[in-house]
Design goal:
The chain is of the alpha+beta class. The protein is built from 7 helices and 16 strands. Bound molecules: zinc ion (2 copies).
Length: 344
């Protein structure tokens, strides 16, 4: 094959098969436990496909984590979208006073803020939320009137994403999508997973809040760090760059296009295709914040460094993609031992 023919061939293969996004090149080495490899796996629709195997630590290398709860009324904590007026508040003295006016009890007379002080208290919250306790039960034996926080631990997770993402006949909205509690919605290029919107009603049923830090992340019930909002949204990034990948393998871009303009004609799941970029999603500062569902069959994620991708098995109980009506505790996740699945 001469040079010109080879060039044509390369161009046509790019045009026909995939968006011009080189996934492995977008992940920083520091995000990875080992280099990204490829293997044959089974996607959520039962088809076999080449998937990327991406092993991450679930900790960001590129920014600090926290704060979530302020220690005292003089300090500033993270961000919490109020369930009554739907505004995003900095968790500080003014906001905690607002909660107290509603009959909550978020700080002592000396200004000490009520928060989960260790892992055992944090795990109590997981138990009461997942088991569907009443407020009265939690007031007696659990945690109420507190800001939920814990310093995250490293969690090695293998996430499998289709190398050649393919559109399904119909997009799957978040509420109908079935994905593992391990996998969330996909992954940021810094190795931190994207999770569905927080089940805020389930959290506030106990007069608790679980704020996000200034990058949109916090610690989940598995003690792992994850995002409910993308750092690019929290930072006001206007580069339109690829910030991560959804579980169906399609890229997730920042809140704007490359020229800083607002994305136009997004479909029902926050995606579109224009200017030769191929299908992609855009994160935003309104529900569902990351993606609104999936355009194609999904890969999956599994705890640890593993070599078997079968998304029909780990599709599990779905991610509680809705706004969390306070009932229906997630089932036991993917059946692996270890920390409970994400619940907050
Ligand atoms: Zn776009
Ligand atoms: Zn969370």
């Amino acid at each position: 094959m001469n040079c010109r023919a080879l060039t044509l061939c390369l161009f046509s293969s790019i045009g026909l098969h995939a968006a011009p996004v080189d996934l492995p090149a977008l992940f920083d080495k520091r995000a990875l436990v080992k280099p990204i490899t490829e293997l044959e796996g089974i996607l959520s629709d039962g088809t076999t496909a080449t998937v990327y195997k991406i092993v991450v630590r679930s900790l960001p290398f590129d920014h600090a984590m926290g704060p979530w709860a302020p220690a005292t009324l003089k300090d500033k904590g993270g961000y919490w979208e109020d369930t009554v007026d739907k505004k995003l508040y900095r968790v500080d003295a003014d906001y905690l006073r607002l909660l107290n006016k509603r009959g909550w009890n978020m700080f002592d007379a000396d200004g000490t803020v009520h928060r989960t002080k260790d892992r055992s208290e944090f795990d109590k919250v997981a138990r009461q939320e997942l088991a569907g306790w009443t407020y009265e039960q939690a007031a007696k034996d659990g945690i109420t009137n507190s800001i939920i926080e814990l310093q995250p631990s490293e969690q090695v997770v293998t996430i499998f994403l289709p190398k050649h993402p393919k559109a399904s006949a119909k997009a799957t909205p978040l509420r109908q999508a079935r994905f593992s509690p391990r996998s969330g919605l996909g992954i940021s290029t810094n190795g931190v997973r994207f999770f569905p919107p927080e089940p805020v009603d389930r959290i506030t049923a106990f007069k608790n809040i679980a704020p996000l830090d200034p990058k949109g992340g916090h610690t989940g019930f598995g003690h792992e760090y994850h995002y409910h909002r993308a750092p690019s949204v929290m930072d006001g990034d206007q580069s339109g760059k690829v910030v991560g990948f959804a579980l169906d393998g399609f890229p997730v871009r920042g809140p704007t296009e490359a020229d800083g303009s607002a994305p136009q004609k997004l479909d029902s799941i926050n995606g579109h295709d224009h200017d030769g970029l191929g299908y992609h999603y855009h994160v935003s500062n309104v529900w569902p914040y990351i993606v609104g569902g999936f355009n194609g069959p999904l890969g999956t994620a599994v705890l640890g460094d593993v070599d078997v991708c079968d998304a029909t098995k780990t599709g599990g109980d779905g991610g509680k993609g809705g706004k969390g009506k306070g009932k229906g505790a997630p089932k036991g996740g993917d059946g692996k031992k270890g920390p409970p699945p994400e619940g907050k």
